Amino acid sequence: MVTHVRAETRGDERGALLAFLAEQRGGIRRAVLGLTDEQASARPSASELTLGGLVKHVAEVEQGWLAMARQEPPAVPRDPSDWDESFRLTDGETVESQLAYWEKVAAETEAFIRSVPSLDDTFPLPDQPWFPPEGRVSMRWLCLHLIRETARHAGHADIIRESLDGRTAFELVALAGD
Q1: Are strands 122-124 and 136-138 parallel, antiparallel or unpaired?
Q2: What does the pLDDT read at residue 2?
Q3: What angle (nearest 5°) sits at the alpha carbon of residue 172, between those of residues 109 and 152?
Q4: pTM of the prediction?
């Protein structure tokens, strides 16, 4: 835990889930703090991951899950031929533009989760080999999955940033004033 998540208002499960998601988003946003697009596109390890690519990826993934819950097509459809583009900045994309897009997606996620009648409401999973046949998940599961996905990549971002310039998550929290 790098920052403290305030306790939810009694009985506000949605608020608690959204607060933990916001805290993990903050870890990734802070990882690009003060970097140029060139630095955010650097690969300081054997991995293909870059900070700019992680920002883009988490924004696309969050929007894709939100679209799935709404039973709409994703804003950026991906398939095996272009999946790798979800992990790197392409064609004039910048960290700033991806952060702005993610902020919009985050606001849509919060509004959607606050608007569903119940966190027990479900939506169908797509017909993919990694999902159970005719699988369904709840809105609560969606929130927990987004927290898990974002936290996993926040950890990647911490390692990449520290490899780039030695700054740790704790230093970035202080720099951001969180």
Answers
A1: antiparallel
A2: 65
A3: 45
A4: 0.93
